[in-house]
Design a protein that fits this description.
258 residues, 11 helices, five-stranded parallel β-sheet, 55% helix
């Protein structure tokens, strides 16, 4: 038979739970009993038990903040650097990516450009570095060039352009994916260039493109505007060429043969 609970213990537990709820300490409320049992079993001091309680609360809050940042970034899929198979694409410098994952380039307001053909890992690498930034406590936003252009045009039609441009300017890292797959519609090129100009030397950018810089007039039809965008994006940028061979296509052939 199980021993009946001490009424004093039950009252204290109820009091701790009530205080933890009042002070918005969910980790302490959910774990104080378990940690108390561990402390008794391991003969910990009261100070060690208190430290374990506070550590649990701090860790849970950090995890909640990271989840919130990942949601706010609006990644289509969360990808991590350890998931990238560098053996599939020897063009990608693994040591360089490991150094960039530390995030000091964001402190220095530098940018990264992944340039290469479709299927060479540009978006995955861009996302992985942006996830690292989220884990470091930075505000990140992911968007494709087409989605950004559409959002800016809609904001302009509602006379809310300044607010939307300001939102994109304030994030510490902006990921601009798929530059080159679609030409920007009339008027959108200037709006996108405004975001890039506002962020220039103020905050970092990751850009993925399948076009050589000389071909960016396919996206920004005005040659002078295209040159200005290239100048701003490439200034203080790490340029990583992911090559021309699609590992997605190669893996598809391998699966088909298997």
């Amino acid at each position: 038979m199980s021993q009946p609970r001490n009424p004093n213990t039950a009252a204290l537990e109820a009091l701790v739970e009530a205080h933890a709820r009042e002070l918005h300490l969910p980790a302490i409320r959910s774990r104080f009993r378990q940690l108390a049992q561990e402390a008794t079993r391991e003969q910990q001091t009261p100070l060690a038990y208190l430290a374990a309680l506070l550590q649990a609360e701090v860790q849970e809050r950090a995890e909640r903040r990271e989840k919130r940042r990942l949601l706010d970034a609006r990644f289509p899929l969360v990808k991590r650097l350890e998931d990238f198979r560098f053996e599939d694409n020897p063009n990608v410098p693994q040591a360089t990516l490991a150094a960039l994952a530390e995030g000091t380039w964001i402190d220095d307001r530098e940018s990264i450009i992944f340039i290469g053909e479709s299927g060479t890992g540009k978006t995955m690498l861009a996302t992985a570095l942006a996830v690292c930034a989220c884990q470091q406590g930075r505000r990140v936003r992911f968007t494709t060039l087409a989605a950004l252009a559409n959002e800016l045009q809609e904001a302009d039609s509602r006379r809310e352009l300044g607010r939307v441009v300001g939102r994109y300017t304030r994030v510490e890292l902006l990921v601009l994916d798929e530059l080159g797959y679609l030409a920007l519609p009339d008027g959108a090129a200037e709006l996108v260039s405004q975001v890039i100009s506002e962020r220039n030397e103020r905050a970092s950018l990751i850009c993925t493109t399948n076009l050589a810089f000389g071909e960016w007039t396919k996206v920004f039809p005005d040659a002078r505007l295209a040159k200005a965008v290239v100048d701003r994006i490439t200034h203080k940028a790490h340029i990583i060429d992911t090559g021309t061979e699609s590992w997605r296509f190669r893996h598809g052939l391998q699966r088909k043969r298997a």
